[in-house]
Amino acid sequence: MAIKNYTTKIGVNKTVGEIESILASHGAQKILKEYYGDGSIQSISFIVDVQEQQIPFRLPIDLNAWIALINRAVDERKLPQRFRDDSVQSARVGWRVIKDWIDAQLALVETKTVKIEQVFLPYVVTKMGKTLYEQISEQGFNNLQLSEGEEQVK
Predict the structure, then answer these.
(1) What's the number of domains the chain is made of?
(2) Which of 20, 29, 113, 127 lies in the 20 to 30 Å Cα band around 154?
(3) Rounded distance, CA 132 to CA 123, Å?
């Protein structure tokens, strides 16, 4: 299967602007971009009012993971050689996929079958400054295990 959006020519700034517009139209406030040392966008953070509280979220991109993914696809001859080690194209592709994912998640929110805080829960920024996923992951997912006496899903 080919990588979604691998041929995109849409620049990161345009895609991130589209993400900001999508988030703002769904109630996001105080949208912020964080940058790597080279000036490329590392994450988008935003705040949403949930039950009279402002809840912060951070959506990161792991550019090295996108480069590795595209390089594997090149090695497997699923993508042309010109995409190898292309960090600019990898960032374009990664942010475009993130935009599509956000758009799909917020389409579910529009149906009222889920809430915005539900779909973005792993990306809630905790008081420790980490996302909820990062915090739970560092604890080895220990808090997610069933207690004694609870039945496991079969």
Answers:
(1) 1
(2) 113
(3) 6
Establish if 75 belongs to a structural domain. Answer: yes
For tokens 């799909």, name the residue: 104
Question: Does residue 153 lie in a domain region?
Answer: no
Structural domain contains residue 102: yes
Beta-carbon contacts of residue 49 (< 8 Å; ≥ 6 apart): 27, 29, 55
pLDDT tens per residue, range 35-73: 999 999 999 999 999 999 999 999 999 999 999 999 999
CB count in 10 Å sphere of residue 17:
12
pLDDT band at 154 (very low <50, low <70, confident <90, very high): low
Average pLDDT over residues 109-129: 95
- 87 close to 67: Cβ distance less than 8 angstroms: yes
Smallest CA-to-CA distance from 103 within 11, 20, 6 is with: 20
Q: How many Cα neighbours within 13 Å face the side chain of 130?
A: 9
45 SS3 class: strand
Residue 55 lies in domain: 12-140
Residue 128 lies in a domain: yes
